[in-house]
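Incident review: delayed structure delivery

Summary: a single-chain prediction request sat in the queue longer than the usual turnaround. Root cause was a stuck worker, restarted by the on-call engineer. No data loss occurred. The affected request and its eventual output are reproduced below so the record is complete for anyone auditing the incident later.

Affected input:
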Amino acid sequence: MFIIDLHYIAPLEQIDAHMTEHMKFLNICYKENVFLTSGRKVPRTGGIIIAQAESKEALEQIMAEDPFCKNGLAEITITEFQNSQMHPAFRAMMKELS
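Output delivered after worker restart:
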């Protein structure tokens, strides 16, 4: 599993101008079972995405298509981790996605 940390490097006005495209990108990744959950940071300096992918490199290629990244509005950090414990409901969801 991976944590994707988006950090905005552009003013929020530019972020908001690309938000519709970003949401379309997120929806595609959810349909492909790559993204599991996502949302804005508080305060609004970027976002966090929990994802699953074959590799960090595959996820880097996917994120290169994010309009925020394509347009130089955000930088990303991808952290891979081994999920060793989880809530039973989350475990059930992960089995459904496999």
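Verification: The longest strand covers residues 2-8.
Action items: add queue-age alerting; document worker restart procedure.
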